[in-house]
């Protein structure tokens, strides 16, 4: 469990990226922060591995204040996947995946062995192991990024718009893959996106943010869709737009999310 | 032509002496420029003054610098004199190249390296420095050629090397000797440059997999150097 307690981040020039933010992120669930750019979602994410330190307030992971944990060690224990993969261009795919285990002192042979297994996990052909990231497609690079994030078998996986830069088709592949992985691996995933469809598709808990990290609404996708907290949320989720009238429909097998044509939303 | 054939051993010796005077300043200017370039890149206020001072070094004419430095060292003709002088010239080129090379490292990559748990020093040696490689290499190629050509100035002071072929050839009116000096200097520069390129390929196999951006960066730095 990750808990934010009235966290504020103010930059030296006085701008407040995040203001009095409090939230509980449950373990072994996917929590998605969604909002337009500048809403503070990435700042909030980066506070979890101390890439950004809050100006006031505290963040706890399983009851321990992370302000007291040495940042480099903390980061090595948390998986991190970012947009454009953030892979090291001068290392082969397998070495990229093995980076963090090697930093933690795992033997090179074991780390490579494990990296190859992770390539299987994320659905990458082992033939790519000895290529450089630039020789892979965007989608493949993202898979490498996910494999690297999983390499130390972290409890927490932070994902900062990881699928933002790939084309829609590949993106939906990667999203499905993530859902499958999450079923198998049971991590606490914290995911940042500006794409509301992606948020609803992936999130067990969706957090809709407004400027300054103010929470417009927190809930499961169906809670938010069926009962938007205010006009801002209603607008944001597109519930009152004719084009994409997402709503919940009760069926014999349970409630499903459909658009105005009665189909599950295109992903 | 006759003169050349009769003096092959002398030409060989001069080339070797020239090489021996060229290598130390090339290596030293690299080793000394990396921390300075890092400093310039790390602390913004330092950048301007440091790069300006380094650049101005190159504007000092070489002969007076050799004379002044030689006077300080107590011997105009010493190898130390020419090595120190040429190291300064090498640094004049390389400090800026290093600062630019480090600045050109993708911020995304640096951030993600920090995010996955590199400490500051670990990140410098494992990420920033190797990724700056292609631009550093471009800078070093200029330093190599410039150094090999500047060593000839030592000839005026009577320091061994291919420069002596110019002064000697001029005084004794042996055209072949002058031409041999020029040709050997150019060849030496080209050979060292080629070796550097090969070294770069061996150390940075990834840069050819991503040839496009790194070459563009390299060209940019060459243009500013």
Automatic annotation (TrEMBL), chain A:
Keyword Transport: yes
Molecular function, one GO term: ATP binding
Stored InterPro entries: AAA+_ATPase, ABC_transporter-like_ATP-bd, ABC_transporter-like_CS, P-loop_NTPase
Entries under Pfam families matching the protein: ABC_tran
UniProt cross-references to SUPFAM superfamilies, sorted A to Z: P-loop containing nucleoside triphosphate hydrolases (SSF52540)
Alphabetical keyword list: ATP-binding, Nucleotide-binding, Transport
The keyword ATP-binding belongs to this UniProt entry's keyword annotation: yes
Domain ABC transporter, chain residue ranges per copy: 2-237
SMART domains reported for this sequence: AAA (SM00382)
Protein family (similarity comment): Belongs to the ABC transporter superfamily.
Protein name: ABC transporter ATP-binding protein
Organism for this UniProt entry: Frondihabitans sucicola
TrEMBL record, chain B:
Topology of the protein relative to the lipid bilayer: Multi-pass membrane protein
Keywords carried by this UniProt record: Membrane, Transmembrane, Transmembrane helix, Transport
Domain ABC transmembrane type-1: 15-196
InterPro entries: ABC_transp_perm/SBD (IPR051204), MetI-like (IPR000515), MetI-like_sf (IPR035906)
Localization annotation: Cell membrane; Membrane
Source organism, top-level taxon: Bacteria
Membrane-traversing stretches: 20-39, 51-76, 142-166, 178-199
Family stated for the protein in its record: Belongs to the binding-protein-dependent transport system permease family.
PANTHER family (UniProt xref): GLYCINE BETAINE/L-PROLINE TRANSPORT SYSTEM PERMEASE PROTEIN PROW (PTHR30177), OSMOPROTECTANT IMPORT PERMEASE PROTEIN OSMW (PTHR30177:SF4)
Protein name: ABC transporter permease
Lineage: Bacteria, Bacillati, Actinomycetota, Actinomycetes, Micrococcales
């Amino acid at each position: 469990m990750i808990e934010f307690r009235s966290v504020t981040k103010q930059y030296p020039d006085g701008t407040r990226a995040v203001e009095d933010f409090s939230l509980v992120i449950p373990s072994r669930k996917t929590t998605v922060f969604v909002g337009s750019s500048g809403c503070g979602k990435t700042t909030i994410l980066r506070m979890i591995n101390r890439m950004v330190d809050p100006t006031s307030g505290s963040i706890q992971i399983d009851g321990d204040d992370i302000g007291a944990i040495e940042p480099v060690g903390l980061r090595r224990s948390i998986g991190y996947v970012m947009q454009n993969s953030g892979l090291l261009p001068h290392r082969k795919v397998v070495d990229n995946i093995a980076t963090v285990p090697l930093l933690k002192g795992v033997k090179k042979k074991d780390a490579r062995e494990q990296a190859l297994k992770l390539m299987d996990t994320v659905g990458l052909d082992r033939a790519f192991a000895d290529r450089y990231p630039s020789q892979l497609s965007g989608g493949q690079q993202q898979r490498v990024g996910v494999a690297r994030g999983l390499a130390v078998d972290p409890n927490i996986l932070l994902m900062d718009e990881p699928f933002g830069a790939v084309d829609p088709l590949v993106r939906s592949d990667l999203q499905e893959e993530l859902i499958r992985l999450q079923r198998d691996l049971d991590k606490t995933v914290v995911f940042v996106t500006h794409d509301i469809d992606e948020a609803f598709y992936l999130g067990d808990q969706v957090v809709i943010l407004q400027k300054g990290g103010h929470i417009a609404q927190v809930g499961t996708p169906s809670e938010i869709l069926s009962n938007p907290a205010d006009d801002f949320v209603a607008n944001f989720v597109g519930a009152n737009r004719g084009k994409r009238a997402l709503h919940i429909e009760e069926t014999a097998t349970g409630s499903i999310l459909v658009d105005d044509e009665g189909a599950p939303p295109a992903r | 032509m006759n003169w050349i054939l009769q003096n092959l051993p002398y030409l060989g010796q001069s080339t070797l002496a020239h090489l021996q005077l060229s290598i130390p300043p090339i290596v030293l200017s690299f080793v000394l420029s990396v921390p300075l370039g890092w400093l310039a890149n790390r602390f913004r206020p330092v950048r301007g003054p440091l790069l300006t001072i380094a650049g101005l070094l190159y504007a000092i004419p070489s002969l007076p610098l050799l004379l002044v430095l030689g006077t300080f060292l107590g011997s105009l003709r010493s190898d130390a004199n020419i090595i120190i002088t040429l190291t300064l010239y090498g640094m004049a080129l390389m400090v800026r190249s290093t600062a630019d090379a480090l600045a050109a490292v993708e911020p995304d990559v640096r951030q993600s390296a920090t995010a996955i748990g590199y400490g500051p020093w670990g990140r410098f040696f494992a990420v920033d420095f190797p990724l700056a490689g292609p631009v550093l290499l471009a800078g070093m190629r200029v330093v190599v050629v410039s150094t090999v050509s500047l060593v000839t100035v030592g000839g005026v002071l009577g320091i061994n090397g291919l420069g002596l072929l110019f002064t000697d050839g001029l005084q004794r009116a042996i055209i072949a000797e002058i031409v041999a000096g020029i040709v050997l200097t150019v060849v030496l520069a080209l050979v060292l440059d080629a070796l550097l390129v090969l070294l770069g390929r061996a150390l940075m196999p990834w840069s050819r997999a991503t040839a496009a951006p790194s070459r563009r960066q390299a060209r940019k730095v060459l243009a500013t150097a």
